[in-house]
């Protein structure tokens, strides 16, 4: 009888394990350990775009571990690969006309992007801007002029970009205006004429330049402090005025109409009481503005056009759990490509046919990831020590009680950017390994108004870092994180914040992961890319002048404070990084080793500012996983 009970117990245990395996979950309802590669491998299909005539759509997919372009006729199952890049991913691409695609690619992460063209059957592929140490950018793809586009290149002078009209078939180009040395941005009207420029005036202020036609010279119509925002979106449909985002005379940017003939705003269209409004879209065919986008904790829309709002609500009704973006349309605007996102999914692409009202699923970006096993990204806010409200996000492991968890603090890069609600592969990977992850939009993060942004001026390592520290203490005080198992990890400015955290709050963190981060503000400012040169004085105002503010920069540079660092450090760097040079990582590693502190160093010779090649991402996160496990394991596990 006893043997039967034992046998029955074993059968029940086997059945439970079978159920757990069949559902993909452990018996305790926590998520299964997902292979690292599933988080960081190339997308199945992504970057969908529709051809101007609406006959084809294109997308990027992996070929020999590099992202390449494929074309597919709508309604057909046949995919045609049109690029075969094996050294580097296609960085970005677009339809030049119905027969030809253009794409950008750099070499080993140097960010000197070259422009290539290829026919939709893969033929006639060649480089249009094959110049050494020259960076190409797109100013206007001129969808109504199939043979030409307008590009910007620093071919004449590495520090500035001149605009060129480029014949995409012959490669012939004509300079449209010689940049006098201070113009940082260009805007065309609806006829493809170059008529607006943004310039840096007196090395610090921002000027809006305008001309009535391409035969005239540009004239200055408005100059504002670098602490204020004037960001033109596009012309009104009579090509006389501009839709811009502006915070002149107010704290938050809002959408306004600006009249260059008098240099003033003439109409306010939309503002949000809590956040900046920075995006505006329009219908090229119907010549109406359609919607403004803003981000509070999540994405929001303000519709100006009932037809666009109706389409959005129709799609939303079928995909209510996701954020929805209309990412591409044809010239007739009867077919739309739609991208979805959520905190637990990299989303999918759909084709919406306005004529039939049909919504067809095209592809999931990462179909191997099960949303049910992903962690929720919870919007949070806390009060910094000086009373400022800091917004952020907290991601907790699935099926684990939110108490005394190991914590990874993940400050964003920029620093003049922000974290958003949505799928983050690194965050989900860490949560899957049992870590709570804290992200915060510290002062200086964009989207929260002028005063919040300006409060970051010359505050690297000071109030900006205090906001991160206060967030960590907030999570600990709420009992969510174990104060003895806290790590900090970030890239670019986030890498700087990692080093600053270890140096300036040495008892707060057990370890840190610095990914292409800045260690020495003097050498960083000395080695900015040549095309940032017009902004040098602005950098000095925002971060610190190496001469006037030398004491401030010494105090804020982690490399001068390695004597205070107690925690272990892992550093990862791309050898070809043009923004944060390899020397930034070399300095901190050498200084740490000189003091005998545990430091691991990974350098990838074919990468730049962040690892784009799939195999390098695998190596980095595999090393990071081992590093965190080594230093954040529970004390009971150590025994």
Low-confidence spans? 1-28, 635-639
What is the residue-mean pLDDT, rounded to a whole number?
A: 93
Structural class: alpha+beta
What characteristic shape results from the CA principal axes?
A: globular
- CATH topology (fold) name of the largest domain: Rossmann fold
Number of domains: 5
CATH C-level class of the largest domain: Alpha Beta
The end-to-end distance, rounded to whole angstroms, is: 41 Å
Largest sheet, if any? 8 strands, mixed
Provide the fold topology.
Layout: H1 2-23, H2 36-40, E1 46-50, E2 56-63, E3 66-73, E4 79-81, E5 92-95, E6 100-105, E7 114-119, E8 126-127, E9 136-140, E10 148-153, E11 162-167, E12 173-175, E13 183-188, E14 194-201, E15 205-210, E16 219-224, E17 230-235, E18 242-246, E19 254-259, E20 264-270, E21 277-283, E22 288-295, E23 299-303, H3 306-318, E24 323-329, E25 335-341, E26 348-353, E27 358-364, E28 377-383, E29 389-395, E30 405-409, H4 425-432, E31 436-441, H5 450-454, H6 463-477, E32 481-491, H7 493-504, E33 511-515, H8 521-526, H9 536-542, H10 550-556, E34 568-574, H11 582-594, E35 599-604, H12 614-632, H13 635-638
Parallel strand pairs: 30-31, 30-32, 32-33, 33-34, 34-35
Antiparallel strand pairs: 1-2, 2-3, 3-4, 5-6, 6-7, 7-8, 9-10, 10-11, 11-12, 13-14, 14-15, 15-16, 17-18, 18-19, 19-20, 21-22, 22-23, 24-25, 25-26, 26-27, 28-29, 29-31
């Amino acid at each position: 009888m006893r043997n039967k009970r034992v046998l029955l117990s074993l059968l029940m245990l086997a059945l439970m394990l079978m159920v757990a395996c069949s559902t993909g979950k452990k018996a305790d309802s926590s998520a299964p350990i997902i292979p690292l590669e599933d988080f960081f491998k190339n997308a199945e299909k992504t970057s969908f775009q529709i051809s101007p005539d609406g006959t084809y759509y294109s997308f990027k997919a992996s070929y020999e571990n590099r992202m390449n372009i494929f074309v597919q006729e709508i309604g057909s199952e046949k995919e045609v690969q049109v690029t075969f890049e094996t050294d580097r991913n296609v960085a970005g691409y677009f339809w030049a006309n119905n027969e030809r695609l253009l794409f950008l690619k750099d070499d080993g992460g140097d960010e000197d992007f070259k422009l290539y063209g290829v026919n939709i059957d893969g033929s006639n592929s060649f480089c249009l801007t094959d110049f050494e140490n020259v960076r190409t950018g797109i100013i206007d793809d001129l969808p109504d002029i199939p043979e030409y586009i307008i590009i910007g290149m620093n071919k004449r002078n590495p520090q500035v970009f001149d605009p060129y009209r480029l014949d995409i078939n012959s490669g012939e180009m004509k300079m449209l205006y010689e940049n006098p040395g201070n113009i940082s941005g260009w805007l065309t009207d609806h006829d493809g004429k170059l008529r607006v420029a943004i310039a840096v005036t007196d090395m610090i202020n921002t000027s809006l330049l305008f001309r009535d036609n391409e035969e005239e010279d540009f004239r200055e119509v408005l100059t504002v402090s670098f602490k204020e925002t004037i960001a033109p979106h596009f012309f009104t449909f009579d090509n006389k005025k501009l839709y811009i985002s502006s915070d002149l005379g107010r704290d938050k940017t809002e959408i306004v109409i600006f009249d260059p003939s008098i240099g003033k705003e003439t109409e306010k269209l939309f503002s949000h009481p809590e956040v900046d409004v920075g995006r505006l879209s329009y219908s090229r065919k119907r010549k109406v503005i359609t919607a403004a986008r803003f981000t509070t904790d999540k994405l929001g829309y303000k519709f100006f056009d009932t037809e666009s709002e109706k389409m959005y609500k129709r799609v939303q009704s079928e995909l209510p759990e996701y954020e929805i973006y209309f990412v591409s349309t044809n010239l007739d605007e009867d077919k739309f490509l739609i991208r979805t996102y959520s905190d637990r999914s990299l989303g999918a692409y759909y084709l919406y046919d306005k004529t039939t009202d049909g919504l067809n699923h095209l592809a999931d970006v990462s179909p191997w990831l099960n949303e049910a096993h992903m962690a929720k990204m919870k919007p949070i806010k806390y009060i910094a020590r000086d009373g400022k409200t800091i917004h952020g996000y907290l991601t907790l492991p699935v099926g684990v009680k939110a108490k005394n968890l190991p914590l990874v603090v993940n400050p964003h890069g920029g620093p003049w950017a922000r974290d958003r609600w949505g799928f983050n592969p690194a965050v989900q990977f860490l949560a899957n390994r049992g870590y709570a992850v804290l992200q915060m939009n510290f002062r200086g993060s964009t989207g929260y108004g002028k005063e919040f942004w300006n409060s970051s001026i010359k505050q690297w390592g000071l109030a900006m870092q205090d906001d991160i520290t206060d967030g960590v203490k907030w999570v600990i005080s709420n009992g969510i994180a174990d104060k003895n198992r806290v790590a900090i990890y970030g890239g670019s400015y986030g890498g700087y914040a990692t080093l600053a955290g270890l140096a300036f709050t040495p008892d707060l963190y057990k370890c840190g992961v610095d990914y292409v981060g800045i260690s020495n503000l003097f050498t960083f400012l000395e080695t900015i890319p040549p095309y940032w040169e017009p902004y040098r004085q602005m950098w000095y105002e925002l971060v610190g002048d190496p001469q006037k503010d030398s004491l401030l920069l010494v105090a804020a540079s982690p490399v001068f404070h390695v004597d205070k660092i107690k925690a272990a450090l892992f550093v990862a760097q791309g050898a070809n990084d043009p923004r944060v040079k390899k020397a930034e990582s070399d300095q901190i590693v050498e200084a740490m080793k000189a003091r005998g502190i545990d430091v691991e160093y990974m350098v990838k010779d074919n990468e730049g500012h962040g690892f784009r090649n799939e195999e390098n991402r695998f190596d980095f996160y595999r090393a990071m996983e081992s590093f965190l496990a080594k230093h954040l394991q529970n004390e009971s596990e150590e025994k």
